[in-house]
Design brief:
- Helix content is 73%, strand content 0%.
- The C terminus is likely disordered.
- The chain is globular.
- The chain has a single domain, classed as Orthogonal Bundle (ABC transporter involved in vitamin B12 uptake, BtuC).
- Helix 7 runs antiparallel to helix 9.
- It is mainly α and 334 residues long.
C-alpha cells in the first residue's frame, strides 16, 4: 500500500540539527537520573522507538505500509538469542549480525513489495509475518515455542558494562543504538535517495517518466528499514536476555503502526515520540485498569485520528508553519 509521505512538507529535523532536537536528547538523558526505578520501561521505550523509526523509513518516506514488520523485528531478536545461547556473547557484533540477517530477509521480499500493487504489498508483508510466527511456534527445539528461549548469555558491553536488572547499562546501550538509527535515517532522507523517495511519494509515474528506477529506490529503503527493525529486536533480546514468540506476533506490527499514527509518519521524530507516548500511556492505563485499558487507549487513538490527522508531532509542525506567516506579517506592519 502506498502512503503519501509527509516528509516533503517541511520537517525541520531532516535537513540539519535543530535546537529543539537537543532538548529531546537532554530529556532522554535526564530520564536516567530522574526516574532510576523506571529504567526497564525507559529502555523498552527506546527500543520500540527504534522499531518505529525503522517502519517510518518504509512508510513515512518510501510510502510502503507494512503489516508484517514484526517479522524482521522478531528475526533480529531470535538471531541475537541464538548467538547468545550458543557461545557468541559479544553484544555489539551480535546486533550487527542480527541487522544483517533481517536486512537479507528484507532484501529478499523487497522486490515484491516495491513492484507490487497496494493489495499485494499488504498481503506479502502480512503473510510473511504470519508465516514466521507459525514457523517459530512449530520449531520448539529451535525457538522454544510458546515457552520462549532461555539461557541467553550476553557479555558486558565493551567488556566493561554488564547488563543488570536495574536496566542502567541496557538504557544507555539502547540509546546509543537509537542515535545510530537516527543518524542513518537522517543521512538517507537528506541524500539523493531521500529526494527520490519523496518524489515517488508525490507522483511515482512522473519519477518513472523522468528515468528514475522506482523499484530500486524503494528496495534500498525497505531493506535498510528491515535491517533497523532487526537491530531493535536484537536489543530487546540482549537487554532482557530472553526472547518470547510474541516478538513475531501480529500485534507487534499493529502497535508500531499505531505509534506512527500517534506521532506522525514521515517526520524524523514522529515515530520516536509516538512510541514513547504509546508505551507510557499503555503502562499508565493498564496500571489503572488491567482489564479495560485497551478501551481507553482506543478512545485516545480515535481522538488523535479525528483532531490530529498528521499525528501529534506532524500536526504541531503544521501549526508552526501556519503561524509563521502571521508573525512575519505582524513584524512587517510594526
Amino acid at each position: 500500500m502506498r502512503w503519501t509521505p509527509a516528509s516533503h512538507r517541511g520537517d525541520p529535523f531532516y535537513k540539519s540539527w535543530h535546537a529543539a532536537e537537543l532538548l529531546l536528547w537532554v530529556a532522554a538523558i535526564a530520564a536516567f537520573f530522574i526516574y532510576p526505578n523506571y529504567l526497564p520501561l525507559a529502555t523498552l521505550v527506546v527500543i520500540v522507538a527504534l522499531f518505529a523509526l525503522s517502519l517510518d523509513l518504509a512508510m513515512g518516506y518510501a510510502g510502503i505500509v507494512s503489516l508484517g514488520h514484526a517479522a524482521y523485528f522478531g528475526l533480529g531478536a531470535y538471531v541475537a538469542a541464538w548467538l547468545g545461547k550458543y557461545g557468541w556473547t559479544e553484544p555489539i557484533t551480535g546486533v550487527l549480525v542480527a541487522m544483517v540477517a533481517s536486512g537479507l530477509l528484507g532484501l529478499i521480499t523487497a522486490r515484491v513489495v516495491a513492484r507490487g500493487t497496494e493489495l499485494s504489498c499488504l498481503l506479502v508483508t502480512l503473510g510473511l509475518g504470519l508465516l514466521l510466527f507459525e514457523a517459530a511456534n512449530k520449531a520448539n527445539d529451535i525457538t522454544g515455542g510458546i515457552d520462549g528461549l532461555y539461557g541467553v548469555v550476553i557479555a558486558p558491553v565493551l567488556g566493561l558494562f554488564e547488563f543488570d536488572f536495574a536496566g542502567k547499562t541496557g538504557y544507555w546501550y539502547s540509546l546509543c543504538w537509537l542515535m545510530f538509527g537516527l543518524l542513518v535515517v537522517r543521512k538517507i532522507i537528506g541524500s539523493p535517495l531521500g529526494l527520490t523517495l519523496r518524489g515517488i511519494g508525490l507522483n511515482k509515474k512522473r519519477t518513472a517518466a523522468l528515468g528514475v528506477d522506482n523499484s530500486r529506490a524503494l528496495t534500498i529503503a525497505y531493506t535498510i528499514s528491515t535491517a533497523l527493525a532487526g537491530v531493535a529486536g536484537a536489543l530487546l533480546t540482549q537487554t532482557t536476555q530472553y526472547v518470547a514468540i510474541d516478538v513475531l506476533a501480529f500485534h507487534r506490527s499493529a502497535d508500531v503502526l499505531t505509534m506512527l499514527i500517534i506521532g506522525g509518519a514521515g517526520y524524523l521524530y514522529g515515530g520516536i515520540l509516538g512510541a514513547a507516548a504509546f508505551i507510557i500511556l499503555q503502562d499508565l492505563l493498564s496500571g489503572m485498569n488491567p482489564i479495560y485499558w485497551q478501551f481507553w487507549l482506543g478512545w485516545a487513538l480515535v481522538i488523535i485520528v479525528l483532531f490530529l490527522p498528521e499525528g501529534a508531532f506532524g500536526s504541531f509542525q503544521q501549526l508552526v508553519r501556519r503561524r509563521r506567516p502571521k508573525l512575519n506579517k505582524e513584524q512587517d506592519r510594526a
